[in-house]
Amino acid sequence: MLSAFRSALATPDLRKKILFTLMVVAVYRIGAVIPAPGVSYPNVQACQAQVENQNIFSLLNLFSGGALLQLSIFATGIMPYITASIIVQLLTVVIPRFEELKKEGQSGQAKLTQYTRYLTIALAVLQATGVIALADRGQLFGDCDQPVFPDNTVATLAITVLTMTAGTAVMMWLGELITERGVGNGMSLLIFLNIAAQIPAEGANILSSQGGLVFFFVCILALAIIASVIFVEQGQRRIPVQYAKRMVGRRMYGGTSTYLPIKVNQAGVIPVIFASSLLYLPDLIGRLVGDPNQASGWQRFLQTYLVDQSSWVHIVSYFALIIFFTYFYITITFNVDERAEEMKKFGGFIPGIRPGRPTAEYLSFVLSRITLPGSIYLGIVAILPNFFLSLTGQGQNQNFPFGGTAVLIMVGVGLDTVKQIESQLMQRNYEGFLR
Amino acid sequence: MSRVGKRLRRIIQRPGSVELTRYEALLPAVEKREPDLEELSDEQLTEAAASLRDAEVFGDKQLVELCALGREAARRGLGERAFDVQLLGTMGLLSGHVVQMATGEGKTLAGALAAAGYALQGNRVHVISVNDYLARRDAEWMRPVYELLGVRVGWVEPSLSARERRDAYASEVCYGAVSEIGFDVLRDRLITAEDDRAQAAPDVAVVDEADSVLVDEARVPLVMAGSVDAGVADEEVANIVRRLRLGLHYETDADGRNVWLTSAGASVVEKSLGGVDLYDDEGSERLASVNVALHAHALLTRDVDYLVRDGKVQLINASRGRVAELQRWPDGLQAAVEAKEQLPPSDHGEILDSITVQALLAGYPQVAGMTGTAVAVAEQLREFYRLEVAVIPPNTPNVREDSADRIFESPGKKLRAIVEEIRTVHESGRPILVGTQDVAESEELADKLAKAGLPCVVLNARNDAEEAAIIAEAGTYDRITVSTQMAGRGTDIRLGGADGADRERVAELGGLHVIGTARYPSSRLDDQLRGRAGRQGDPGSSVFFASLNDELVLANAPDVPDGIHSDEETGEITEQAAHRQINHAQRVAEGVDLEIHRNTWRYTRLIEHQRAELLKQRDEVLGTDVAREKLEAAEAERCKELAESVGEDVLTRVCRDALLFHLDQLWADHLAFLTDVRETIHLRAMARETPLDEFHRAAIPEFHKIADEAEQRSAKTLLEAEVTDDGVDLAAAGVRRPNSTWTYLVQDNPFDSDAEQALKKVRGMLRKKRS
């Protein structure tokens, strides 16, 4: 591992790419802590201390690397870009013109990317306006009464909106720069960075409130979790596949490298996000319906059992939802019939199994078998922070960076990036292979 | 375009925007040199050219001198004074660009002057053409110019002996077809003695018809095969497959790239083969031959994809519409087609080495090119070759009239309208050139024309030998020429026939009228056909016919929007939506092509890298005694014994031969392995892995084994083989050099493109679902 990094740095080409990525990262982190114009920095700090992360915007905040609640120039972050690309993807199904563009290959794709960028700007304006309106009315931080915008004239707020929108545009550009000239996928890397940026703060929190011993154990545990997540993420079932389309004199390599891989965690992080979004609903309803101080019976019930993240009802339903969504998601994304059909079309088959229906049935069998451990694993990783919290006595934060969504995303992006560096290294390091 | 506009384009790096003003500024100086040079005798001219060789830097001064000398040499040698625009082309080529010059502007001369310019700078230059005929014609045509400039010129063609070949390559400028030069590179890779090497390392490639060579042909691998196994065409399977029926026993997909058995079909085949199970481990060998036979039966059509001529199957090159003499289908498909046509199987061999055109050109330190249509592929040229396009303005402005497409609801009505159009235009006696899509269509149209009382000359893959003659006469008064795409390149169409005797009359009528019977899969091919008319300011016109049921539309954009109305009687559609649909279909086709090209290149780059490493090692073995040293270290005793019995020299040679042989063999095996991996690697996208990265992961460790393995095997050979004074008999030791080798082009791989398609689909799906 270390030697790989050393040789990565010794390859001039790759070194340049890595340094470039690091430079972009530095630019981005600095921007994330520069307050937007018009924002009162001391007041924001005071408010933040008050709310202790107990906030429905925490997921957004996590994705923005804390920039959102800092009201920094990167407050809106890359969320608008992510939303915009999802929307454009969906629109390709609805709007014929978009579908045409998508089919036209690179030149069409370039146009779609351009549309995505425009949409990002529009969404960024919307989101920035929303965030600023909330912040101005004091709702962003729950019950904080410090004025975040001392001078809340329209002109000042408009400049703040403009600044944040520009911030999103810059982030989009930085992300694209990384993809183009650096290592890894820029957007994923920026999300990774946002999450990782929270870790030191969380660590310091634990250290100051719980003392060294607990901190030490938390660190050990965190490492163990990360290691096991990496282990499971790499796991895959390899179904041997043969392609009998060409007549080759000898077939001595068959089986070694021709297989259909199915990951243990084929669904990725999506089921966890689905489940946690669903569990936010009771909290949201409770807040919308009324004043928590005069709560009716069912509201109190919701509060104690579902909203409170240390309650066993919450934990069990969370776990169950994740298992459900994993199966659900895999069923809709991994279409066994389509896969079997495609293999048949291109002359492929699983030895001993006839193409078409039997292949689809076999794939479906394997898939449902491997999804069970996969979903249980996802559930465990996701509920871990809840135990962490009761252990450390922290406030409620589903997105604590040592478990749940955060660690899944981080490990995923990390693995991808390392793999990419590795493959670039392999392509370059040929010198002296024949002694 | 205004100057400001040009500059803006350059700033945003739009293609085709290389700065020419710098060269334009030199033209007056060239002109000023002209009277002086006219005074010189031929010898003095040659001397003046020779003095360019001494220049330390090749700056503007030398450039001016070269152009002036070139112009003078062309005037004396060919009797034509090079236009300013031709000299501009020469200067563009000399600075390593792809120059776009319209048809008939004199690319050949511009290229020759540039080649001479490179040669006078001390480089060894290859001028690469699309075929042997053009290579030879251009070399002979330009020879007087080269001779006046004191540059030695030669050409290669398939019939040359090894000795003549070496001589040709030893010239300063060598003309050759891209395949011929590529094959020589491949042959040089299998030599066992340094003296057998044909090519000395060249410095510069000047590519004629650059878009065709660099883009269309780039994917086609040149292959060198050794006949190791005899060809096996499974006739039994071919007979079974012949009885299968579409829909019941097998199905194909819409774009005609894939065919597969239904379960009913599989049962029938299994029963006919005597109750085997095709889908277990043993049956897969049989299954492969069934699949290949089915592909030949269902997807390849006689007279569209291939011809049967002289008892042989000959492929038709889709992008040029002519018989591709050297091309074969890969992996048993050739044999399957031969079985289908009940022809004797041709030789079948193991692939020893292959090289793509792109990799071949990557081997030249300096590449320049010229073509009539470069701007359309400018981005690809930049991406794959780091070449920029310089657009040379025509000598006289182009006055050709290009009409809008005429679109019809069905191919039948389209054909009717085409015949009608030909009749109308023909009445005045204007010459007409019709470009069709394939051989079958050209013959169908010729039939229809004959019935309508309109005699025409047909030019297609069947009579391509007469190509130059037919095309040269296509501008004659009253002439109708029906051709496949082949009429695109190389020969000019002069109005009023080859000698231009009747030029005035034909020009008066409006010049050549070009008709395209359908849009081609790329707008560049459309432009090539259009470019046949309007040469050097001649009058001319062009029109394309299309239908919403053309293959281009069906394959690439089958979802035609509803509610497009057509004229009831003629079936003509004038709605904008139909034009959009057809342009869209063409863009999809271009996009798919580019994607395949890019993907192929990504994978071949690694293979090229490995090959370069291997060749370095091979050259070391070839040039030094390293083989002897290595084997001595491994088998000291045996070496000593042999040194005594046959002598030092023989032993060294034996060691070298053995090691070279095993290196070559292992490389061939490695290539087969890579093909295997390549075929299924797209499945890795299922686990969100990048197929390309996974390909590297599989390919690299395997490659690293080659060196040791070769040594071990050579040591074993040394132990087991009988060594005499004549060397070693490798055949007797159970290893054989291929008893004959031959070279051919592989038709761009029909299988791989499927994998690409699947890959794209899977990727698109994942991307959609993930976001």
UniProtKB/TrEMBL annotation, chain A:
Gene3D superfamilies: SecY subunit domain. GO terms for biological process: intracellular protein transmembrane transport; protein targeting; protein transport by the Sec complex. The keyword GTP-binding does not apply. GO terms for cellular component: plasma membrane. The chain crosses the membrane at residues 18-36, 67-94, 115-135, 155-175, 182-201, 213-232, 253-281, 315-336, 362-388, 400-418. The keyword Transport applies. It is found in: Cell membrane; Membrane. Keywords: Cell membrane, Membrane, Protein transport, Translocation, Transmembrane, Transmembrane helix, Transport. It is a multi-pass membrane protein. Belongs to the SecY/SEC61-alpha family. Component of the Sec protein translocase complex. Heterotrimer consisting of SecY, SecE and SecG subunits. The heterotrimers can form oligomers, although 1 heterotrimer is thought to be able to translocate proteins. Interacts with the ribosome. Interacts with SecDF, and other proteins may be involved. Interacts with SecA. The central subunit of the protein translocation channel SecYEG. Consists of two halves formed by TMs 1-5 and 6-10. These two domains form a lateral gate at the front which open onto the bilayer between TMs 2 and 7, and are clamped together by SecE at the back. The channel is closed by both a pore ring composed of hydrophobic SecY resides and a short helix (helix 2A) on the extracellular side of the membrane which forms a plug. The plug probably moves laterally to allow the channel to open. The ring and the pore may move independently. HAMAP family: SecY. This is Protein translocase subunit SecY. It comes from Prauserella cavernicola. The lineage of its organism: Bacteria, Bacillati, Actinomycetota, Actinomycetes, Pseudonocardiales.
